[in-house]
Input
Amino acid sequence: MAFQLLTRTATFLATLAVASVLVFAFMTVLPGSPAQVVLGVSASEEAVAQMEADFGLDRPLPEQYWDWVSGLPSGDFGTSYVTGAEIGPQIVDRSLVTLWLVGAGMLVALVIALPLGTLAAVKHRRPSGTVLAGISQVGIAVPSFLAGIILISVFSVTLGWFPAGGWTTPASDPVAFLQGLVLPALALGLVQGSVLSRYVRSTVLNVQREDFIRTARSKGLRSWQAMVHHGLRNAAIPIVTVLGLQLSVLLVGAVVVERVFVIPGLGSLLIDGVRNRDLLLVQGVVMVLVLAILAINWLVDVLYTVLDPRLRATA
Amino acid sequence: MSAATEAIVLPDSVDVVEPGRANWSLRVGGVLVGLVVVVALVSFVWTPWDPYLVDGTNRLMGPSSSHWLGTDQFGRDVLSRLMVGARTTLYVGIVAVSLAAVGGIPLGIVMGMAPRWLQTVLVRANDLLLAFPALLLAIMFGAVFGASTTTAMVAIGIATIPVFARITRSGTLQVMSTEYVLAARAGGRSAPAVAVRHVLPNVTSLLLVQASVSFAIAALAEAALSFLGFGTAPPIPSWGRMLNEAYSVLAVSPLQALWPGLAIATAVLGFNLLGDGLRDRLDPRLADAR
Amino acid sequence: MSDPVTARTPADVTVGGAAVDGAPGDDHRLVVEDLSVRAGRLGLVHDVSFRLGRGERVGLIGESGSGKSLTALAVMGLLPEGLSASGSVRVSSVDHDLVGASDARLADLRGRVLSMVFQEPMTALNPVMRVGDQVAEVMEVHDLASGRDARRRAVELLAQVRMRDPDGVARRYPHQLSGGQRQRVMLAIALANEPDVLVCDEPTTALDVTVQAQMLDLVVRGAAERDAALLFITHDLAVVATVCERVLVMYGGHIVEAGPTRRVFTAPRHPYTRGLVRASDLGALGVDGTDGSLRRPLPTIPGTVPPAGAFPSGCVFRNRCERADEACEVEPPWDGLPGDGAACVHPYDPEDTAAPGDTAASEPGGVT
Output
């Protein structure tokens, strides 16, 4: 198993390296130099040249790439061309906020999906399956930012139970922090939960039909015992895949939801960066998001190996 | 033969098929998509009001006999703007999906027929690109090329290429291992000829399903982008943009957000259901494998 | 052990009702009466009755779709959702009917009184659980052994089914074993608690020919050592001929013929059985008396098994039968003794043997 983990980790790191080249290359294909973009078309050639020299933009691309990427592991994302501020600390701060958001959203999704999906599978072929399929279709069709707007207009504007937006750090005021987290977490989690519950249902249904469940029952286990002792771990394998995908979806959803709830996370940072044409900042945030997505995929791979002995081929 | 008897053809293996859902998805999806298409088409020849007509005296009106869905904060007729907005959604979806298909299908065939080593490289690269969400790519495009409907749909299309490539590849691999293709190849047909004659017709149904689902994803992404202000630029109506404008007056008039929200959900639901229904219709074995 | 009135030889069995029976004495391990399985309004198995005696080995044969596996699952109380059983299934050591019993009561019997080996060894074991634990579980569930004790017993059982390195095998996962090994694990599980009745549903069908014989030997031996009654389901007549003393032939959810293996295979009375025997090339194995050196093209039964619900009324075989006429439009009565006969209006004469040119059939019940 150790060998498996090693190869998967190596693949992850290699993919990450390629991704960093892609992100860097993409942000550099821009017609004209970044300095030109920042200073505007009316800027004099001297001013552009001066700025290029200041930020090292006149160096060969491989050198610029290496300069950028070698700083990443230590959290050095470079200095913004626009504000002149260090990008790294901003990204770290904002990442924490987004992490809270995504974590809370996933929690909501799981709390909804696991019991609901399992229940629907156990009571299967009654209308529950169809109802759940319907709910989950509606769930997919309602993007998280739309859910956020609906939640705000109901629970904030109309009922006044929760704030419509803003962010308080958990350290400064835990109660305000939780109050502010509720609606965005619901916006992210409700939608994903309804989608997830459908997967949980079909997975549990499929596992119920497995031959080894019948074997377990032929040994004298009650059907629920067979499901708990033999079904759960087998069902976990496909569900982990979906969870991985959903985490990525949540991450991207958070970018937009942060906008709706005026939350200073990575998404807001990214959008501000695009607005200000702060290319290095955008490059950094995109890299962090890609890193997170790749890391989730890696984690899913690792979990597979742990859960499924069949994947632990003898090396 | 009805679904009920079909399920018991082989009593020794006893499979329980859930009947009836496939047709429902297809029907409801078809109706919803049809509705969006019809509304978009009608908007070319008729809208209740000029969707761009600003009327300072009639701002944020509720639904009435003259403005069926009311007016927005600039006094523009919401229904008219919704109708024209349907065009934007369809436009973005059609261009993005076409781009993805044109790029992804040949790539997928190459990925399925190329020499082993090349397949490995391409599949790895494709998996990497799959990790880039459409929305993220579109935001990057917006940062580099400037935000517009065009960059949005090109970015969404490019982000969807790997999805089509992957599906085409799996279909290609499946078809390539069948006996009639082996026979065709043994008979001296070249790889491209085999691809066009045997592979393409066999992956069509898979791609059709994917096209419908991708259409829904594209519509969602466009809405999100326009909401963020990176998609369709004002004053051209787009549902995401309308939602953005409604969001800014949410405290005053929560109902404003309802209509564009409903429109987005309807279109996405329609295309997803259509995809589901098509899948069930074209390959019943996949019906419960989701 | 039984009084003189009920003591009888297999040949002159006369049990009341429609029971199909050939076992000596009253000492029945399993008594199935009028067992039917239906899916909603659609009947899949119709009024099946048979008895298994202590240590008796009975084959249940038929093409796929004949209802043999459903019969076995109904006996085990493991019918898939949507299917229901009626009639009566009793085992000697239990004082209540198994049909209609609560799942809790049935669960208590499964794996202890009734055991089953399934057809598909590749999927029948839990892929994420060690083999030894899966064997031990069947003892732990019934509180017959636990913890280290169960684990030790599991290794013993694996050794009993001739697993080399049983200690090592116990620690492995199913995917690390071959199909034959997995099926032996299944057998070890089935035999662990010394069941009264062992049901094997095509246990060798999915295996390589080379390991089939060993598996059959282990099944027969395992059942014999425990004096368990064996119900052996297969479509392979050669396997039945080597394993079973008695055979039940199923078609369209009905038992169409029953009798001692030798009689059924040498002098089949039902046209369906006759077709099966002819199509099986049992001659090559010398069962029907020929030496098998004269190979001939195998005759097949005309037509195919219709899907459930599409069988003709009356005799279910009449649309494929060369002897069918108007008389077959009503359900045929049982012709012969309850444990040795056929459900046919126009049965073949006992003298009319299955294969042309073979020697005289031995007397009914000649298996010893």
About this structure: Chain A has twelve helices and no strands. The mean pLDDT of chain A is 84.
